[in-house]
Specification:
The complex is a heterodimer of chains A (242) and B (202).
Chain A lengths: L1 E7 L3 E6 L13 E5 L4 E4 L7 H8 L8 E5 L5 H4 L2 H7 L4 E5 L3 H4 L8 E5 L4 E5 L2 E7 L9 E5 L4 E3 L19 H15 L3 H12 L5 E3 L6 E2 L1 H12 L7
Parallel strand pairs in A: 4-5, 5-6, 6-7, 11-12
Antiparallel strand pairs in A: 1-2, 2-3, 3-4, 8-9, 9-10, 10-11, 12-13
Chain B lengths: L2 H41 L6 H52 L10 H50 L6 H30 L5
Helix pairs in contact in B: 1-2, 1-4, 2-3, 3-4
Classes of the chains: A alpha/beta (242), B mainly alpha (202).
Chain lengths: 242, 202
């Protein structure tokens, strides 16, 4: 599992992904942690198959008892099917996940972890002194979906938006946006069902000060590529990929 | 899922299946008892010895139905325990895998507590499963006992039927159906016991 520190300040952001040992028939996904002095938030913990390498990777940054919070943008198995294992590993943790999906996500096993439902209009969660904004991203692609914005680190963890599928040796950041576009197009046209929802998200996100766009699959966007991505996504007709 | 867990799931599922067949047969016995009672009533003095037997058959059927209903509830608990054990075992195995992969990680040692806890939980489930299986086998033995009693009643019924004159054939048919039902219950419950016996507390 590759680990890349993407922000280092009073707290840290680390991206995990490109697991070379994952089974071929399981899609690659990115996981992130927000590490403060005594706590650790795990964003998009991943699927069951990924649990062991992911947990092992996190142990380079935080002890088990300091993994206090988890976040799931939506209910898909590649996002959160490992919940039942985290549930047995963590003795004092909360899962921040969409209120709408509570009854669904609990199927993965959620007995000791406290499910903290996120209301439709989002909210703010606090990990020690770090305030994270939970931004609504409904229908992108799940009908109830959220992204996480850190105004201090200027990172937007944008879930499925900006996703692409690449081999395990691919770089973690987009290097040539014009080339990368073709890796994203079909996915966004197929998986994002609503131009209206896309427009609402872009309007909301353009008001944020973003250095890094961090999707759940594929490469992250930084610097000018953030605006390039928003412009490209703005002009893309979605819900057409059939 | 390993082969032991698979066979455990199959054993628990097979109990429910076998017992639902037992339930059908027990209801048939109850019906046969009602039928026998009507015949015995019509036969009057000729089937005087048969009349108390019909009550006994009916009571036996009712008790069997009650026992099987309770066992089914117990079997459901056993199924849930099997699921729980499967989850605990899966977690323990994954945690062991984490420990190997995290070798050299700064906080690798912090995995020890979850591993120990998962192992304890897994072993608790395994012990609980064995205890519950032992109890279930006891309850199944009670059903077997009822099946054996039903066969004795069937034998007595045949004797009483032989003295019932023109009602002989009808009452013998009742005795036959009770005997057949008792056989079926015995065989089905025996299969449950065999499926479960490897998991009992030694």
């Amino acid at each position: 599992m590759k680990m890349t520190k993407i922000y280092e300040g009073a707290h840290q952001w680390v991206m995990f992904g490109r697991d070379e040992n994952k089974p071929d028939n399981i899609i690659d996904s990115n996981q992130y942690i927000v590490r403060t002095a005594n706590k650790c938030l795990l964003l998009e913990p991943g699927g069951t198959e990924l649990f062991a390498p992911m947990m092992a990777a996190v142990l380079h940054h935080a002890p088990v008892d300091q993994i206090t919070d988890l976040f799931a943008s939506h209910q898909d198995p590649d996002v959160i099917s490992s919940l039942g294992l985290w549930d047995q590993a963590l003795s004092n943790a909360k899962l921040h996940a969409p209120a709408l999906w509570e009854g669904y996500i609990r199927n993965f096993g959620c007995e000791s972890i406290e499910y903290v439902p996120i209301p439709d209009n989002g909210e703010t969660i606090k990990i020690e002194s770090v305030e994270l904004q939970i931004i609504p991203a409904h229908y992108l692609h799940s009908p109830c979906n959220f992204h996480v914005y850190d105004p201090q680190a200027k990172i937007l963890m944008c879930g499925s938006v900006g996703s692409a599928f690449e081999p395990a040796n691919a770089p973690v950041f987009v290097e040539r946006f014009d080339v990368h576009v073709e890796k994203m197009r079909a996915y966004h046209q197929r998986m994002m069902p609503s131009n209206q929802a896309k427009r609402a998200w872009i309007d909301r996100v353009r008001n944020l000060d973003i250095d890094i766009l961090a999707p759940q699959h594929g490469r992250m966007f930084k610097g000018d590529d953030v605006k390039r991505f928003l412009d490209w996504f703005d002009s893309l007709q979605v819900g057409t990929g059939v | 899922m390993n082969s032991q867990t698979k066979s455990q799931f199959i054993a628990v599922a097979s109990i429910t299946s076998e017992l639902s067949a037992v339930m059908v047969v027990a209801k048939e016995i109850s019906l046969a008892a009602a039928n026998a009672k009507a015949i015995a009533f019509r036969a009057g003095d000729k089937a005087k010895g048969f009349q108390p037997i019909t009550d006994f058959i009916n009571e036996l059927a009712k008790e069997t139905i009650e026992l099987v209903t309770n066992i089914n509830v117990y079997a459901l608990l056993l199924y849930r325990l099997t699921v729980n054990e499967y989850r605990r075992t899966a977690a323990y195995n994954r945690f062991e895998q984490v420990a190997k992969l995290a070798n050299g990680a700064h906080y690798a040692n912090s995995m020890q507590e979850p591993i120990t806890h998962a192992k304890t939980m897994m072993q608790d489930c395994q012990r609980q499963f064995k205890r519950d299986v032992t109890q279930l086998l006891g309850q199944l033995e009670a059903v077997m006992h009822h099946a054996r009693a039903a066969r004795v009643i069937a034998a007595n019924s045949r004797i009483e039927a032989s003295q019932a004159g023109e009602y002989l054939q009808s009452l013998q048919a009742v005795a036959e159906s009770v005997d057949k039902a008792a056989h079926t219950i015995h065989d089905n419950v025996q299969r449950c016991r065999i499926a479960l016996s490897i998991y009992r507390n030694s």
